[in-house]
């Protein structure tokens, strides 16, 4: 009986100490999202495989990667993000020249037609814990729609 009075509180303390979340919960955004479809003015760009693009959200950072033939990262883009009033804002105004050997990793992902050195405003058309659809209007007026599915 004495052992359980000491052992049980100790086990509960250890379990609760391991259940922390770094800088708060970001809800359904957190994790890795695979792009299942991308259309520009209603059509998939010729020769483009949208499923090779992965979007990853953690805290206020976003990494968008383009996977190669053998799941290597052929290209990658880092930025910051925030959500407000039905919009997702992707900030790519962080200067690449500030970081040694950045190889353009802090620029907007060009293959997604997002303008460089800008804060891109994407409309959230649909979002659940497992699926989301975003819309971006390029400076040229093209309507780009990204459909994403949660991988983890």
List unreliable stretches of 5+ residues: 14-21
Lateral strand order in the biggest sheet: 1-2-3-4-5-6-7-8
Total separate domains: 1
* Total number of beta strands: 8
CATH class type: Mainly Beta
Radius of gyration (CA) equals 20 Å
> Which sheet architecture does the biggest sheet show?
8 strands, antiparallel, barrel
The percent range for helix content is: 10-25%
Task: Enumerate how many helices there are, as a single number.
Answer: 1
Write up what this structure looks like.
It is a single chain. By secondary structure, the protein is mainly β. It has a single domain, classed as Lipocalin. Helices cover 11% and strands 42% of the residues. It has one helix and eight strands. The protein has an eight-stranded antiparallel beta barrel. Strand 2 and strand 3 form a beta hairpin. The N and C termini lie far apart (43 Å).
Topology, pairings included?
Elements: H1 2-17, E1 31-40, E2 53-58, E3 61-67, E4 73-84, E5 87-91, E6 119-127, E7 131-137, E8 143-150
Antiparallel strand pairs: 1-2, 1-8, 2-3, 3-4, 4-5, 5-6, 6-7, 7-8
